[in-house]
Amino acid sequence: MPLQLRRLQPREPITVDAPARLHLGFLDPNASLGRAFGSLGLVIDAHGTRVDACLAERERIDGAVTDAERERIALCLARLQAAYGPATLAIDVVHAPRAHTGLGSGTQLALAVGTAFARLVGQPATSAEIAAVLGRGARSGIGILGFDCGGLLLDGGPPGDLRQSAPPLLARQPFPEQWRVLLVSDTRIEGLHGAEERRALASLAPFPQRLAAHLCHLVLMQILPGAAEHNFAPFAHGLTEMQQTIGEYFASAQGGVFASPDVEHVLRAVAAERTAGIGQTSWGPTGFAVLASAREADSALATARAAAQSLPHIECSVVAGRNSGATIRNAEARAPRSDAA
């Protein structure tokens, strides 16, 4: 369901709201059947990225960005200019999550900037095409697909030639509206990224085919059916088992099943008192617990805060799933409008 961009006359300003995502795990990191990775993920309704952009006489990058993020935006603009023609933009990042916490902030920011650029120059590029230009989606397509349509998503892993397409969407389930997600994050650390991430992946032993088969079985026969039928217990048990399996595989690279022992401590306290699907998104340090209702989430939040009482670096919050993709607004239509299929 690609985000279709019509050929438009240049306009200003353009506002893009890109949603955050949780990466819930890979299916086959070692390509035991010839195709690597494959990802399960969930789009959430908080911690998104908002970018305002307009055509300008000189390039400007302002707002809620670090120096490193400013450099990444400048590189994105240079690649977009090379692909779609010269254009000078003023970019204002209104808000964005802290980078490298497992929320997909790099892809959000790149797609938001790329979508705004394409709109402003009248280029009918899809989000998958923009992602290819900007070098996103090398392993997971959840951020790209989540930008398009939201929900609980399963992708089939990257194709052999990343210039051709993003990882294909294999399944999408609307995330049940009554379910909630408790997020627990360690503000002292960042998840692995860049060269460290590549070295970590290269250091891992081959992922056993039997475990890949187990993960696929959990996703196809427990997690996705649980979401489709709003049957929480099998969903939660399947997700926890998937996360434990993949976490044990990555433990040697990140120091344990969770990147942060304190996040793990809090989440296991939450799961000890109720049915919950717990795990870590991407390389962390953000962990999650999926709960069956807002009431359960409020109770879990109280448990989490009690467990983290002596841990001031631990942040806890409750969010919902998001079943729609990015929104795009312009000066002529300031009310949010989803362009997702």
From TrEMBL:
The keyword Magnesium does not apply. Signal peptide: none annotated. GO terms for molecular function: ATP binding; kinase activity. Keywords: Kinase, Transferase. Residues 76-142 form the GHMP kinase N-terminal domain. The keyword Transmembrane does not apply. NCBIfam families: beta_RFAP_syn. This is Beta-ribofuranosylaminobenzene 5'-phosphate synthase. It comes from Paraburkholderia antibiotica.
